[in-house]
Amino acid sequence: MVTRINGFSGMDIDSMVKNLMAAKRIPMDKLTQQKQLVQWQRDSYREVNSKLVDFQSNKLTRTYGISSAMNAYKAVTTGNTEALKAVANANANGIDMKVSITQLASKGKMETNGIGVGSKFTTSSTLADLGATSTDPYKLKVNDQTFSFSSDTEISTIISKINANTDAKVTASFDEIKGKLIITSNSMGSKSEVKLGTAAGDNTLLEVFGGMKQNDMGKDSVVYINNTQLIKDTNSFTVNGVSLTLSATTSTTSTPMKDPAISGDKDDPVNITIQSDPTKAIDTIKAFVEDYNSLVSLLNSKTAEAKYRDFAPLTDEQKADMKEADITAWTEKAKSGLLKNDDILKTTISSLRAVISEKLGSLSSIGITTGQYFENGKLYVDEEKLTKALNNNPQAVTELFQGTESAPKSGIFSIMATKVDKSLDSLVKRVGTNKFSADITSTFKEESVMGKKLKEYTTRISDMLTMLNNAETRYYKQFSAMETAMNKLQAQSNSLFSTSS
């Protein structure tokens, strides 16, 4: 460590070194300012990245792109409304339906006799607790999958192993009240069943649970729509563009395959009427236009923002002599225009506006138009005209935004999502942002163009700081040596003066 001597010769060494170092620090200050600009620019890019991810993923894909978002119909049910739920889809054909349900679909199921009502056993009980005494394993074959358990195996483990075997295609459970083992097929319908078996001589797991009580096949749902029978292996299906979810039967007939409309059996059907309701579609389109305008406005403002080249980032020394308000005002100007005329942003704006331009004829016909040229592509919605278009031909409006059934990616939402995805890819390469996250605090990937550039700045600044520290140390050594020499000279001079006296 260098001993710093100051003041014996009347010189202010600290001030002299500080002045000498001030000139040498100028290149490092400029390098630090350049690094700060890159960091600010990267943060500005991340703000844009966040907006693009939100627009593409949360809005275009997950909100506006789903079929229900553009649904211009609603299903109105009367009669036995507790028997089913009806939801009109965007492709509902408007045909009214009278629905009678004579049988619900069910799953194949096996259950044992159990080991007594009010059973004291729980899933923590072992097979030994249930009376299994053999040292040989207890086996069960379910849909060609064989399971083997020792007497000290807990019931919870048995259930977990059966359920974890996807090839068994069943779900096992234990009724603690009656001590029953229940195995249910994962599928519904008349082809749904639980096939069981054990090899001759094996200990049968089912016997530990009281033996098999019943093994029922699954059943199909039987429905009559406008007196036409439909048989389904599920309780949820779509007819005429209307999603039906069955929850109860409407007929008292004991013969499920019989048509109650013909037989005279008591029946309380559900009547479904399809009505035009453009509210949801209008809300979706208006929200899309608002989000589109907001995004384009942000991108335009970033690329057109004024750049103040005379306002570089402030150094710590400069801030020390300024008021907080002045620092804030200066910094705002220093941050301004960091994405001015940015190529990625301008390409994004052009690609989004191109999607609108290509569909402008169709959009104009339903009441969506662009503003004046100086509004940079802003969209406007004539709600009255849009409502009329949805009432007259909702399918055409839906296909314009969401594409056709044969070409789902031909709609505006999907095309825009693809364009934005390309922009996000460009940002990932240059900035190191995350194309799947809208979080503005997420970390940057270092292996990007800007990430590598910042690494280079950090290395150069570190090397320069070492050089400056060495130079400062050298100056103090030189001044210390000079101070020592001057003191020695002064002592010799005083000695000579004393001798001559």
Descriptive account of the structure:
- By secondary structure, this protein is an alpha+beta fold.
- The chain is built from 13 helices and 18 strands.
- The chain has helices at 13-64, 155-164, 205-208, 260-263, 279-304, 316-320, 324-335, 343-358, 360-365, 383-392, 394-402, 412-431, 449-500, and strands at residues 73-79, 84-88, 97-103, 107-112, 138-142, 145-149, 170-175, 180-188, 196-197, 203-204, 212-216, 221-225, 228-232, 236-239, 242-246, 270-276, 368-370, 379-381.
- The strands form 5 sheets. A 5-stranded antiparallel sheet has the order 1-16-3-12-13, with no helix packed on it. Strands 7-8-4-11 form a 4-stranded antiparallel sheet. Strands 5, 6, 9 and 10 form a 4-stranded mixed sheet that branches.
- Strand 5 (138-142) and strand 6 (145-149) form a beta hairpin.
- The protein is flat.
- The two termini are 42 Å apart.
- Residues 1-8 have low confidence and may be disordered.
